[in-house]
Structures are given as C-alpha cells and as structure tokens.
Amino acid sequence: MPHIASTLPTDVIYTMWKSNPVGVNGAHKKVIIHGGHGVAHRRKHGGLETPNGILTKVTDDELELLEKDETFITHKKNGFIKVLKSEKPPAAEKVAKDMEQADASAPLSEKDFQEGGRAAAPKDLQVSTFKEQQSRKGKK
Q: Is residue 81 packed enough to be buried (19+ CB in 10 Å), middle (13-18) or exposed (0-12)?
C-alpha cells in the first residue's frame, strides 16, 4: 500500500469533483493527507512533540485520484509531498529531511526572526519611544 510523506504544517483534504446530470459539481471523493510538520502536538501521556514529517497510508485507488488533482501535483512539485510506493516505508523523519521544510503557513521559528528572515523587521523601520512621539506632537 502506498504512503504519502508530507512536510505541510496542516492536514490537507484533496477533493475530487464530479458533475451531476444537471451540470452542478459535487464532491465525488475526498482524500485526507495528514500534516503537522513543525507544529507542536500534545502527546497522550504528556509532553509535546514536534514531528519532522508525517506519513499517511493511502490505497492504490486514492493515489490514482490524487495524482490527477492539481493541488496535490503542485504540492508534490514544490517538494512538500512525496509518494512512497515501498511495502515498508522508512521513518517519516528520514524521508522529510530531503523534502521542502516550510511553506508560508508554517509556524515561525528563531531563524525567521534573524536578519533576512520572513519575520525580521525591515531595515528602514524607525522605532521611536513614547516620549519622542509626544514631543513631536507638541512641536506641530
């Protein structure tokens, strides 16, 4: 049975649509691929874990449908999804280390706050204190 490795931070429900006799599209089949990469999860016995990759088992029929889904194809092309067809897949962490690690919706990490990171303040940002703001108001 195939497995899908994911480094997406959230579950994704891929929906296959089918047109009914009236011409209105309706959901024909849904396949959920689990996410959670880089997101802290509470463990049943206590504590937190932050997985570095998630595996989801799918049937051959589901994989065939997924391979036709545009969103799945995009996720696969961008390196967030990998199809594993071996009978006994390797550990999710081993597969994930060769995959794309974070998309724009991933939680922020310390690296994101460093200069040039996606959460870093712009270089031209001018920060002033409350006193400086009040003195500027009085000068106007």
A: buried
Structure confidence by residue, pLDDT tens digits, 82-136: 999 887 877 877 787 778 777 777 777 777 777 777 776 667 766 777 777 777 7
Residue type, position 134, single letter: Q
Question: Which run of H or of E encompasses 24?
Answer: none
Domain for residue 133, yes or no?
no
Residue 134 lies inside a defined structural domain of this protein: no
d(CA 79, CA 8): 10
Domain limits for position 29: 3-105
Query: Looking at this protein, which amino acid is placed at residue 6?
Result: S
**Token match 């994911």: residue?**
6
